[in-house]
Amino acid sequence: MKIITKKGKNIYIRPPKYEETAYINKLWSDVDTTGEVGGPFFLPEGKVSSWFQKMVDPTDGHNFYCLIFNNKDEPVGEVSFHRFDDSTKTAELNIKIERIHRGKGYAKEALFLLLDYYFNEFGGEIMIDPVLLSNKRAQKMLLSFGFEHDPSNKEVFLLKMTKDMFNKIKDGILPT
Length: 176
What we know:
The chain is of the alpha+beta class. The protein has a single domain (6-170), classed as Aminopeptidase, CATH 3.40.630. Helices cover 34% and strands 27% of the residues. The protein has helices at 21-29, 31-34, 45-55, 106-122, 136-145, 163-170, and strands spanning 6-7, 11-14, 64-70, 75-85, 90-97, 126-131, 148-150, 157-162. A hairpin with a 6-residue loop joins β7 and β8.
């Protein structure tokens, strides 16, 4: 497995080690953390290996998953993209910050690191996030980052970022 670690000022992201799936289950099963995204979720013991192979090592080429760590090397959440479509070069975003670690800027920093990898190394062109209509916190954060709302889907609050939009943000042309 090629370990891709991306470092920011206050956090870093990297694919988890197999033994860190215990933290992933803890994160997913925490009602306070996942309630806004339709959780809690639980990855049954019998599914951990196949999930890990699809998402982390070796991956199926359409998904990329990282844990987010603070500068004390403590996991604080996850960031990933899913269902990459080779023909449209589009994927779906996922980001969760553990409830006790919210409000520290970790989400925006992890989002920046993931999008930089996705657009400028992986080869993605569009990132979308179909946010639940009730998840106002995620909507506000992603809009303030620079995502645009696509009102074509009334079932979710669909947000979209293109490679060009991201690189303008990265280059300081568009503020976050």
